[in-house]
Amino acid sequence: MKQFLADFSLAELAAIFSPEYRAKQIFEWFYRQYGTNFDTLTTVSKALRSELSDRFETEALTIAAKQTSVDGSEKYLFRLADNHTIETVLLLMREGETNDDGEPIRQAQYTVCVSTQVGCKMGCAFCMTAKNGFVRNLTAGEIVSQVLAIKRDHNMLPEKGLNIVYMGMGEPLDNLASVAKATQIFATEAGLSISPRRQTISTSGISPKIDELGEMNLGVLLAISLHAVDNATRERLIPLNKAFNIESVIAATRRFPIDMRKRVMFEYLMIDGVNDDPRSAKTLVRLLGNIRAKVNLIAFNPHEGSSFARPDRAKMEAFQRYLLDHGIVCTIRQSRGIEIDAACGQLRERHTASEIVSHETISRESIKQRSMMLRMSARSFSFVLPRIWCSNS
Prior knowledge:
two-stranded parallel ribbon; 16 strands
């Protein structure tokens, strides 16, 4: 059976192919020339091209569908070799600019939000991904291929920098071996060359795995999906809290090694009447004492079947002000993709019963029409935004 080329690090390829520079030629062709057909790898012999073709597949996933939201984010549904599907999002963080002559004066900035599992075991009450249960872990190559496929799809320059957040489908630390390997493949200079400092791994709070990640000393950033300040509320939202309570998660976070110029991100999904009160803000300040923390407040993104509601904006701003006044960096994350019901898990759930129309673009003028279609048609679909950057975490 053929293996996926993306599953191999440069060092692993070097152990297979001799001399060592052959591995680098293959690696650079794959990641910097976006190679998919070994016949185009003309820097090696025909015999080696034939061997590579016999041993490796170059595409671990394919684009099943894509939508573009009015906010500029793009939601991808990728189909894996075993026909399962995962979601990935390309976020336009800052638009590029040109001068009067059309020459670029500022490059666009992007973040890619990747999935790490097909489904999820965590069972978070606010997340639709968990409703379909857990299927399997992704391999390192399947994680890497999400970014590679998006760069190919957009014809991005190989050297174009991106930020990566492991905040899509699945719990990254429940698949730590593959995630850790993916961070290293991403960072390889002969490949995509995405620094570990531009990679953020999120977790719902598996305390021993936070320690294990820290011991790996990968140089990545850490994000904690906190979402509540007392154990009773957090257990209601995140059942994992019964095994690893808030105190253990905070203690593991304090032990995590991080560049002093950086901060640990705490994701806080605000739900009306659940965790958006002043008392929660005060408790959060106490919990995060002596941690270089940044808190991202995210308004709950409503989705079909959920009993939770989006909080009042004024409450969120009051919550933010309290944290800022007490020395904690705090932002309110802009929700993206609301006009296409972009709550975590909807795309995959709807896709199992619907035929996807590939590469559909939602324009500003068609939003109302699309919303009506979503309500009326059993064959409609919507794209899902991953946990924190785009929707509910």
